[in-house]
Write a structure and sequence with these properties.
heterodimer, A: alpha+beta, Glutaredoxin, 2 domains, 4-stranded mixed sheet, 9 helices, B: alpha+beta, Glutathione S-transferase Yfyf (Class Pi), Chain A, domain 2, 4 strands, 55% helix, globular, glutathione transferase (chain B), EC 2.5.1.18 (chain B), transferase (chain B), glutathione transferase activity (chain B), Glutathione-S-Trfase_C_sf (chain B)
């Protein structure tokens, strides 16, 4: 049997965050190999470990997987977190892609030039509160169920909680003020044992981007 | 039975083109509503047809699907173009994400200023020939099969040939160091559904021009400056 999955990334959220959340929600133990310098990254490239010379890379089941979505799709399918038929998968994919678009804006924000940061933050808040969160609030309202799709816990729920917390922590703490169902939902999903464990101090969860992480990212990737 | 899928987008490639390619490859006939005016777009918004207020949108099997990848994954799975097991699906996903990144560099090209266009062109050729094409060349060389994954025609093959043709439009001899890809291109182009799609009169859209850029900006009222990433 293959060993635990091994995650290759720098010690920060970035594009590995969603993957980490999904593994935790699935109850999968994993190891992390942190890239700490440009040399570490160069070594991975020279060893031919990075298909497109990029991270995230996850060693799993005999594969060196790259590309976040490929990795996420594989984990979700393997651990039955992706819906019971094509139509449920389609709904999940739509929701998740929307969440990823919002997550992408938040992820890029620290790297914006200083004179563009304020406008960018306003744009993120606008999109979160008028484009993305209203959709998920309505989904929950319309079916009245506990989970986003198919009345069952899935990757869509993991990713929505992740994006809610990311927005609260990195953009605006009261972002859910106009979304009562999402507030209840957040509490509910946070209480699922695997998730609850991940949210406790001492877990492998990464903190929001701080100055050290920012400096590391620049040093390694730019 | 549901009618043909209906595609809602501008009269051009953009993010809808890979969807057109995949439907064509799967032999699925489709209709298109081409967005030419702001009013058409606002009507879609008012009717609540666009989940995240964006196009592409595809009406298919009773759903109004949005988000390019969600639509592509659905079509691929429905038409058996997504591999036979999880590991093949993983390979297809990795390869498709690579060609998506490559085509993403070309997607924004028409919207750039002339100076940025020049820089971006150099980036496109550089990434195509150093990061992306070598990967697919090696995949084909290593297993010696006709198709990228599982010895069977899949979404990955459709996406790769689309990206090859797009890069060639920017630099016609870009495949000169890639003999496997040259043979692959010829081979895939000859598959009946693909051959038909490559013929004049098909629903394949041409290289974007200024008229296309103007239409997108007008319909979306997106007049901001686009910078290359």
């Amino acid at each position: 049997m293959a060993g635990k999955p091994r995650l290759h990334y720098y010690n920060g959220r970035g594009r590995m965050d969603t993957i980490q959340w999904l593994l935790e929600a699935a109850g999968v133990e994993y190891e992390e190999q942190f890239i700490e310098s440009k040399e570490d990254l160069e070594k991975l490239k020279k060893d031919g470990a990075l298909l497109f010379q990029q991270v995230p890379m996850v060693e799993m089941d005999g594969m060196k997987m790259v590309q976040s979505r490929a990795i996420l799709n594989y984990i979700a399918a393997k651990y039955n977190l992706c819906g019971k038929d094509l139509k449920e998968k389609a709904l999940m994919d739509m929701y998740i892609e929307g969440m990823m678009d919002l997550g992408e804006m938040i992820m890029h924000h620290p790297f914006k030039p200083a004179d563009a940061k304020e406008k960018d933050l306003a744009l993120i808040i606008e999109k979160a509160t008028t484009r993305y969160f209203p959709v998920f609030e309505k989904v929950l309202k319309d079916h009245g169920q506990d989970y986003l799709v198919g009345n069952k816990f899935s990757r869509a729920d993991v990713q929505l909680l992740e994006v809610i917390l990311m927005t609260e922590e990195e953009v605006k703490p009261d972002i859910l003020s106009k979304f009562p169902l999402l507030k209840v939902y957040k509490g509910r999903i946070s209480n699922i044992p695997m998730i609850k464990k991940f949210l406790q101090p001492g877990s492998a969860r990464k903190p929001p981007m701080d100055e050290k992480q920012f400096a590391d990212a620049i040093k390694i990737f730019y | 039975m549901a009618g043909k899928p209906k595609l809602y987008y501008f009269d051009g490639r953009g993010k809808m083109e890979p969807i057109r390619w995949l439907l064509a490859a799967a032999g699925v006939e489709f209709e298109e509503e081409l967005l030419e005016t702001r009013e058409q777009y606002e009507k879609l918004l008012q009717d609540g047809d666009l989940l995240f207020q964006q196009v592409p949108m595809v009406e298919i099997d009773g759903m109004k699907m949005v988000q390019t990848r969600a639509i592509l994954r659905y079509i691929a799975a429905k038409h058996n173009l997504y591999g036979k097991d999880l590991k093949e699906q993983a390979l297809i996903d990795m390869y498709v994400e690579g060609t998506t990144d490559l085509m993403g560099l070309i997607l924004m090209y028409p919207f750039l200023s002339p100076e940025d266009k020049e820089k971006q062109l150099a980036t496109i050729i550089d990434k195509a020939t150093k990061r992306y094409f070598p990967v697919y060349e090696k995949v084909l060389k290593d297993h010696g099969q006709d198709f990228l994954v599982g010895n069977q025609f899949s979404w990955a093959d459709v996406h790769l040939i689309e990206s090859i043709l797009m890069v060639e439009e920017k630099s016609c001899d870009v495949l000169s160091e890639f003999p496997q890809l040259q043979a692959f291109k010829a081979r895939i182009s000859n598959i009946p559904n693909i051959k038909k799609f490559l013929e004049p009169g098909s629903q394949r859209k041409p290289v974007p021009d200024d008229k296309y850029v103007e239409t997108v900006r007008r319909v979306l009222q997106a007049y901001y400056v686009v910078k290359a990433t």
